[in-house]
Amino acid sequence: MRQPAVTVVIPCFNQGRFLRDALLSVQSQTFADWEAIVVDDGSTDGTTEVASSVLDSRIRYCYQENRGLASARNVGIRAARGGVIALLDSDDTWEPLFLERMCRCLARHPGAAAAYCGFKYVDPEGREIGMPSLKVVPPECFHQTLMEDGNWLIPSAVIFTPAPAGEPGFFDEALGGVADTDLWIRLSARHPFIGLPEILARYRRHPAAMSRDPALMVADYRRMTEKLCGDPGGEHADREERKRSAHARLHRYGTLMYLEHSDVRRSAQHLRRLLILSPGVSGTMAFWRAAIRAHLPMEYGGGILTRSALSRSAQGLGALLDELAAGSEASPHPRLMPGLRSRAFLALADESVRSAVWSEAGAWLWRSAVASPAIVFSRPFWGTVARGMAKVARPGARLMLPR
Q: How many whole angstroms separate alpha carbon 344 and alpha carbon 317?
């Protein structure tokens, strides 16, 4: 039997209305040496009929009782005949050049485990929304960036080679919504991930997409952390710093995940633990910019924000800081509160500058300096001012500081 170069694994659970678009996007690839395996994870919506309606001898259909997304992906990987695995969620699609460009990229780096690319957000009808996501880091920095910043990839924008015997190559079915993060961490610890700076995938946002229940996601992240690094009270003193950093990332994740769902009480609980494990992380601009984005739909990505979006984020951050300072549990580091407020306000100023919301930028700069005057002597403060002044030099822009 002919061995295709690529196996496309398409798990599907009650996404029959989008599956046809996914399959047609595979059929329209300029790279034709592929097979596709549709793994129906116990659907009850006519997925079988949709899969059989797309006539192509390269498409195989497999049914299993509902066991979850990670299990469905593993079934497809085990049945694959291709030398490269390409994941495509049933509600996502590819640009016609996806396989050609991605396979060429992976072929140029024979020691790599995977290649990934950028993606755009689309609505249920396939119309582009928001800003595309295009984050590419040097291969030698990928693993550390993934560990520190969290997973910014979507599975539909990744292709990888089946792992050699004895190496990680399957999704951990016990980890639910973070199984892909876990696999990328394990693979990238051994081999490089190569980023292709092109937008080649389309990620569909719709109400029926996989639920992101924050409690379940944080529980899965905790299981992943303990699996990779052990629980905080375990032995192995030589790994204590690694464990500490890993559990700090867990609480950073919990802070942002609950903030995304407007649960400031639980978000503050995780932030308190983060302050204990890693006080410096929660004082960085990167953390507070992530907190600002946590309030907003994913399709905002790293793009500009509207005045109303900034206002929404400011209200959420204010509620989080108030809960941290005066909630049912007192902050473990009350002396840190002025600095935390100052950094949060500075991040709002920076986002306002980047989005050219000038009056808000000046107001937040002022509040940042009032909360903690020492911030005026910091590089992030003057970096924000410099960005603002550079934009002010453009016609029609005025950065106004309060009197």
A: 7
Measure the CA–CA gap between 117 and 80, rounded to whole angstroms: 22
Q: Cα-flanking dihedrals φ and ψ of residue 38, to 5°? A: -90, 120
When pLDDT is cut at 50, 70 and 90, the band that residue 403 belongs to is very low
| Residue 226, H or E segment | helix 214-229
In a domain? residue 318: yes
Boundary (domain end) residue, out of 256, 278, 300: 278
The amino acid sitting at 105 is: C
Query: Do residue 323 and residue 345 come from a single domain?
Result: yes
Tokens of 271: 């932030």
Judgement on whether residues 241 and 287 belong to the same structural domain of the protein: no
Q: Which of 87, 96, 86 is nearest to 28 (CA)?
A: 96
Buried b (16+ CB within 10 A) or exposed e, 171-209: bbeebbbbbbbbbbbbbbeebbbbbbebbbbbbbeeeee
Q: Is the dihedral of CA 226, 231, 234, 235 positive or negative?
A: positive
Residue 264 CA to residue 285 CA, distance in Å, equals 20
- Distance CA(51)–CA(233), nearest Å, equals 49
Domains in the chain: how many in total? 3
Residue range of the domain that includes 373: 282-403
Are 145 and 12 contained in the same domain?
A: yes
Domain-ending residue, one of 145, 171, 204: 204
Amino acid present at 2: R
Task: Assess whether pLDDT exceeds 80 at residue 281.
Answer: no
Q: Are residues 67 and 194 in the same domain?
A: yes
| 50, 196: one domain | yes
Mean pLDDT, the chain, integer? 87
Say if residues 249 and 148 touch (Cβ distance below 8 Å).
Answer: yes
Same domain for 269 and 300, yes or no, is no
Lowest model confidence (mean pLDDT) among 27-41, 94-108, 283-297: 283-297
Cα–Cα distance for residue pair 174/190, rounded to 1 Å: 22
Contacts (Cβ under 8 Å, ≥6 apart) of 117: 98, 101, 102, 157, 195, 196, 197, 198, 199, 200, 201
On the CB side of 317, how many CA atoms lie within 13 Å of its CA? 27
What proportion of the chain, given as a percentage, has pLDDT over 90? 59
C-alpha–C-alpha distance, residues 189 and 172, integer Å: 16
Q: Which of 29-33, 180-184, 245-249 shows the lowest mean pLDDT across its residues?
A: 245-249
Other CB atoms closer than 10 Å to residue 314's CB: what's the count?
21
